[in-house]
Amino acid sequence: MTDTTPTQRVAELIKDFRFAMFTTRNAQDRLVAHPLTVQEAEFDGDLWFLVSRSASFLEDLRRDDHAGVSLSSNGSWVSLSGTAELVEDPAKVRELWSPTVEAWFTEGPDDPDVGLLKFSAESAEYWDSPGGKLASLFSFVKAKVTGEPYDAENEKVELPDA
């Protein structure tokens, strides 16, 4: 691992994630998670998503803008807590647009259903088992055999305002 601050470490981990679970609180005050594709690899405290303007969770955000984002890969996990809002910024939609997004929005970036969701993280917690799946499996077996705790990096991080 490189010599980085906890905030930089969160950014370093997030750049490798492609998909996220975006969690809101619905009208019945229940937590509900929705799968979204991360649109921007550079994490500066904000994550951007292209979403359908008719997505049910947007109504949840109108009532309560607090949200969570969870990301995972073979050996890393990140949980973010913050707020989210639908933003009107056609230039940002075009910046984030990719051929993959066209599977959901066939009319292109000018599709009237394309919404731009900005998630602003306030805090994070991450767990990282460097080396991927094989290293994670080795650490798990080692912990079971030796009785020592599972060897993984874990930290809670308060993120500065971007």
Automatic annotation (TrEMBL):
Segments forming domain General stress protein FMN-binding split barrel: 7-151
Transmembrane feature ranges: none
Name under which the protein is recorded: General stress protein 26
Native organism: Microbacterium saperdae
